[in-house]
């Protein structure tokens, strides 16, 4: 059964307006969201920074990064606004006989903070070191046990695609694959090829097969499904494809997912949201926000638009849609 | 006896105008204030930077940071304006048998500078390493012996709450607790619960019980007491609660406290200040300055306001209240 894309297009701006919390002087630090990014290694430092700073620019109160010891000073130096924990380890710095001990130490460091976080973003700049990925698998298991939502992107998707049980059946998990990551996911989970002619049906089947996790399939239109419903977001967008935009998206989805969860818990009787899955709502809002900021940045910077330019327009883009009073 | 908050609201802008020194071409480097921040460890580097740069942006001439060896290169990289001393040590880098020696070395490094400072800010990004906190306890004792004012925030409050003798009876000490830090302080010192219905009386009792130190209780209104008087500052303010704002406040209070002390020493016969406690005056001015800068930043950046944005508006906010001629 083929479904017309137009039929699943959602009013994303109205979702943003519904879930974004009102601000007032009685609020205290942390209430607007505490986000942590798990990523950053010897090779990659930009991606976790982009994800973590985007969370703050959208309105989270605190943004942490858990990365390797090599990556920490660099990520710290990008911005004093982030809290950067140098706790992850890669194989090259760990002897075989120490692995068990180091792994439990890494876990303990992250666990100290776990319950305070409203959402984890797992994967930006994580790299593919086997020892590090083993530790991250454990972090994912602990997040599930604590009911902390997780947004998985980049090398986190590499990990999860090869170990789908890590997220399978966890309704608070979001996967945000690009074209290539989606292809691998479909091949691995559905044992089939990507079918662009029936994209909505396929993303629905994929999300259902992974037990109701939410998939945000990035593309010309972003497609979002939790196995129950499919939504598409096609507004705005930019033709510029500089690296790092996926990191903005993952950080944004994390904040909106947290806000959607608060909104649903508060059970506002005036809420006109038909969808009650915070993961889906977070993806809709994050997708629209990213697409709008990218479009505004492109109108200013054209071909020279880089990821930092887009981040600078997150605040204005949100303000245009949902003014803070 | 319950006191109406309005009855203790102070004209903070007039305090700022009274204590801010006039500038003229005959002045030399250092006269407008030399501030030092004690803080910054492997985990935290943003907080001491925010406190130290805020002191400069308000008008101090020199701003130092004393931090651990790991934190120093990162804090230096945030700004060439700061003088960053890599002198503190955490347990992990010190062998048991070396502790006494290292501790006396740390003390000697700070002592070399102590008499030149007009105020210390103790706590931003200090962390909670026991060896490091022991060294900082000694730094506090030396500051008292030298009559150097101290503003204590963040992990410095954790230290002092558990060792109240460190500051008890020191009139040049300021504590700047947020909601949670205030709760711990009240429980520890007054052996009671926080009483919001009679907040002015409680902060008065607390300050008196700690022997006349000045408390700046941060909240929707900031409450300030030295055990003798209570003042509240409610003007301006912002609903944004991003982490780091407390660091701006502590750096600002340090500068204004130094200025108030100079002003009182000069015994200007035209001074119309009814309060003669420089710690209280510094808190009033610092609170109003922070609240105004936060409010101006929020009017520009709305939900995407981050701490760095607020710091950028410190100068304009002070200029609006008290123009440099």
Main sheet characteristics of chain A:
9 strands, mixed
Give me the CATH architecture of chain A, please: 3-Layer(aba) Sandwich
Mean pLDDT of chain A: 95
CATH superfamily of chain A: Ribokinase
Multimeric state: homodimer
Our Rg estimate of chain A from Cα atoms comes to: 19 Å
Largest beta sheet: strand ordering of chain A = 3-2-1-4-5-6-7-8-9
CATH class of chain A, please? Alpha Beta
CATH fold naming of chain A = UDP-N-acetylmuramoyl-L-alanine:D-glutamate ligase
Tell me, briefly, the overall form of chain A: globular
Output the structural class of chain A. Answer: alpha/beta
- Uncertain segments of chain A are none
Which pair of protein chains has the largest interface, and what are the residue counts?
A: A-B, 36 and 34 residues
Helicity of chain A, in percent?
40-55%
Give me the number of helical elements of chain A: 13
Strand fraction of chain A equals: 5-15%
Binding site for ATP (chains A, B): 218-222, 237-246
Cofactor (chains A, B): Mg(2+)
EC number (chains A, B): 4.2.1.93
Pfam families (chains A, B): Carb_kinase
What this model shows, in words?
Chains A, B: It catalyses: (6S)-NADHX + ATP = ADP + phosphate + NADH + H(+); (6S)-NADPHX + ATP = ADP + phosphate + NADPH + H(+). Chains A, B: Pfam families: Carb_kinase. Chains A, B: It is an enzyme of class 4 (lyase). Chains A, B: Belongs to the NnrD/CARKD family. Chains A, B: This is ATP-dependent (S)-NAD(P)H-hydrate dehydratase. 2 copies of one chain form a homodimer. Chain A has a single domain (5-317), classed as UDP-N-acetylmuramoyl-L-alanine:D-glutamate ligase, CATH 3.40.1190. Chain A is 48% helix and 12% strand. Chain A has a 9-stranded mixed sheet with strand order 3-2-1-4-5-6-7-8-9, sandwiched between helices. Chain A is of the alpha/beta class and 325 residues long. The longest helix of chain A is centred in the C-terminal third of the chain and has 24 residues, at 278-301. Chain A has 13 helices and 9 strands. In chain A, helix 11 packs across helix 13 (314-321). The relative contact order of chain A is 0.15.
